[in-house]
Amino acid sequence: MEKLSKEIIEKGKKLFESGKVTKDLDTPKRIYFTVRGTTEKHSVIFEKEKKEYNCDCKFNSLHHKRCSHILACMFKEGV
Ligand SMILES: [Zn+2]
User: Fold this and answer.
1) pTM of the prediction?
2) How remote is the CA of residue 72 from the centroid of ligand 1, in Å?
3) Cα of 43 from ligand 1 centre, angstroms
4) Boundaries of every domain in the chain
5) Bridge partners of 34?
6) In whole numbers, what is the pLDDT of the chain averaged over residues?
């Protein structure tokens, strides 16, 4: 796993603790989450086969790193 900044972990934890993460759908291949951030809503998808999280936010698509939304989902799943 790549190095994560403490700030992102803290942010993700806060999102999870304040109940901003909703698990929408759990299918055999994917789990769909919605994370309500401070300004917008984000969709996070967990690919079960690849064990990979993807988020639609800019941070994730620009840096290819786990963003706070993904972290929030990981906390929810107890990873
Ligand atoms: Zn994100």
Assistant:
1) 0.88
2) 9
3) 8
4) 6-77
5) 22, 43
6) 91
